[in-house]
Every structure is written in structure tokens, then in C-alpha cells.
């Protein structure tokens, strides 16, 4: 299992903002939803395209893939509409010492 990787200081990722961290070869999308941080694999399950290019809807807690419009729940990775049907991998997040951390725990 991978060690925790530092994403950023908590003050660097404001509510509604997103960033990408790398755990080895795995890009991890990290989003701040009103002080709660969520991490998903930065790859649409419909096609190999980065979710981080899409728009976050903080109110709905979703991100939309810009390639074909698939939407995913940021809290658990569920696919919410076609063309995606499979979820994206969700990763743990912790806040410690004023920083946001995540890891690929698969």
C-alpha cells in the first residue's frame, strides 16, 4: 500500500477548487467542497480523459467530464449519467498539520 502524499496546504485549495496530485503513475483529483476534501482518480471511467479538466458543481458535489459530459459524484465516485456507467476510484483524504494528504490505497 502506498504512503500518504502531500497535496497542498489547506489554504491553497479554496472551497470549490480542485487540484491534481500524483501517487506514482496515478493522477488523483482532489476537490475542496466547503472544507471537506474528496479525492478521485483523475480519469473518466467512460474514456481515458482527465476529470480535472471538467467543471465542479459544489452545490451538487459533482464534476463533469468535458469530453462527453459524464458526471460523477465527488463524494463517492459514482457515475451519475451516461455515457459513463462505472464509478471512478475514490481515495482516502486526511488533513494533518495544515496540509491535505491522499494516497492510492488500491
UniProtKB/TrEMBL annotation:
Pfam family, one: Rieske
GO molecular function: 2 iron, 2 sulfur cluster binding; metal ion binding
Signal peptide bounds: none
Keyword Iron applies: yes
Domain Rieske: 5-102
Stored InterPro entries: Rieske_2Fe-2S (IPR017941), Rieske_2Fe-2S_sf (IPR036922)
Keyword annotations of the record: 2Fe-2S, Iron, Iron-sulfur, Metal-binding
Name this protein carries in UniProt: Non-heme iron oxygenase ferredoxin subunit
Organism: Alkalisalibacterium limincola
Upper lineage: Bacteria, Pseudomonadati, Pseudomonadota, Gammaproteobacteria, Lysobacterales
Amino acid at each position: 500500500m502506498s504512503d500518504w502524499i502531500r497535496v497542498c496546504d489547506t489554504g491553497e485549495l479554496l472551497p470549490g477548487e480542485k487540484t491534481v496530485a500524483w501517487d506514482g503513475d496515478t493522477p488523483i483529483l482532489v476537490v475542496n467542497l466547503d472544507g471537506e476534501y474528496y479525492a478521485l482518480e483523475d480519469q473518466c471511467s467512460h474514456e481515458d480523459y482527465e476529470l480535472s479538466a471538467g467543471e465542479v458543481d459544489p452545490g451538487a458535489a459533482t464534476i463533469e467530464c468535458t469530453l462527453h459530459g459524464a458526471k460523477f459524484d465527488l463524494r463517492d465516485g459514482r457515475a451519475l449519467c451516461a455515457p459513463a456507467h462505472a464509478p471512478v476510484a475514490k481515495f482516502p483524504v486526511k488533513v494533518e498539520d495544515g496540509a491535505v494528504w491522499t494516497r492510492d490505497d488500491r
